[in-house]
Design goal:
This protein is an alpha/beta fold and about 220 residues long. It has a single domain, classed as TIM Barrel. It is about 40% helix and about 20% strand. It has an 8-stranded parallel beta sheet. Helix 6 links the parallel strand 7 and strand 8. The radius of gyration is 16 Å and the shape is globular. The model has no long low-confidence stretch (mean pLDDT about 95). Bound molecules: zinc ion (ZN). The site of zinc ion has 6 residues, from loops.
C-alpha cells in the first residue's frame, strides 16, 4: 500500500509513502533544490502571509524552478483574511501565481482562510479551470456544497476537518496531508477510511490514482 501525502513541510524516507514537499523560497533554492524522485515531489509558492516588497523576485525564483522542471505544483499560495498583507496585494500576487501555474501546466496548492467567495470569483472572472487543491480543508457542509460545484477543485484533509464535509466529497476529489503537524500520515488515512467506512486499501488506491491524475510529473 502506498500513501500519498499531498502537503508537508518535511522530507520523509518512509518506503511506503510519496510526499509533495513544500519548499521555502530562499536564495539557495535554485542550486539546492534536489528535483523530484519516485518518493518525493516538490511545490513552492508565495504564501499570502509571506508577501514582502520584493515578491516579484520570489516569483522569478519559482519561475526558474518551474523551467528546470523541479516543481510538480505551485503553492502554497492564495488568500488569507487573517493576514496583515492588504487584500489587494494578496490578490495581485495570487493572480500572478495562477498565471505562472497555467503557463507551466502545474496544479496550485491553495491556502485559503475566510476568502472562499473571493477564490471562486477569481476563478469565474478569469474563466480559470486550472486544477487547485485546497490544502488543510476545514470548511463546513454549506461551503463544501458550494465548492463542489466548481470543476477541477480538490480537497486535502489534514488533522482537523469537518466529518460532514468529508462524507460529502467524492473520493476522486480527495487528498490527505500532514502539513506541519506531527500526526502520522497512516493515522490520518486510518481516520478518514473509518469515517468513510471504506478500507484503507481502497482509500489509498483512490488517492494514489488522484495523485497520478493531478500530478503527472
Ligand atoms: Zn503548509
Amino acid at each position: 500500500m502506498i500513501y500519498f501525502n499531498a502537503h508537508t513541510h518535511q522530507q520523509s524516507d518512509a518506503p511506503d509513502s510519496i510526499s509533495l514537499v513544500n519548499l521555502e523560497i530562499q536564495e539557495s533554492i535554485l542550486t539546492d533544490c534536489p528535483g523530484s524522485d519516485p518518493r518525493t515531489i516538490y511545490s513552492c509558492g508565495i504564501h499570502p502571509r509571506a508577501i514582502h516588497e520584493a515578491w516579484e523576485k520570489d516569483l522569478h525564483t519559482i519561475e526558474c524552478l518551474l523551467q528546470q522542471k523541479k516543481l510538480s505544483a505551485l503553492g502554497e499560495c492564495g488568500l488569507d483574511k487573517l493576514s496583515d498583507t492588504p487584500a489587494e496585494l494578496q490578490e495581485k500576487v495570487f493572480n500572478a501565481q495562477i498565471a505562472l501555474a497555467h503557463t507551466h501546466h502545474v496544479p496550485l496548492i491553495i491556502h485559503c482562510v475566510r476568502a472562499f467567495d473571493q477564490l471562486l470569483s477569481i476563478r469565474k472572472k478569469q474563466a480559470i479551470s486550472d486544477t487547485m487543491i485546497i490544502h488543510g480543508y476545514r470548511g463546513g457542509a454549506g461551503l463544501t456544497a458550494q465548492l463542489l460545484k466548481a470543476d477541477h477543485l480538490y480537497f486535502s484533509f489534514g488533522a482537523n476537518y469537518s466529518t460532514d464535509s468529508l462524507k460529502m466529497i467524492p473520493t476522486e476529489r480527495l487528498f490527505i496531508e500532514t502539513d506541519t503537524t506531527s500526526v502520522s500520515l497512516m493515522t490520518l488515512y486510518r481516520q478518514v477510511a473509518s469515517t468513510l467506512q471504506i478500507s484503507e486499501q481502497l482509500l489509498a488506491e483512490q488517492i494514489l490514482s488522484n495523485k497520478k491524475r493531478v500530478f503527472p510529473l
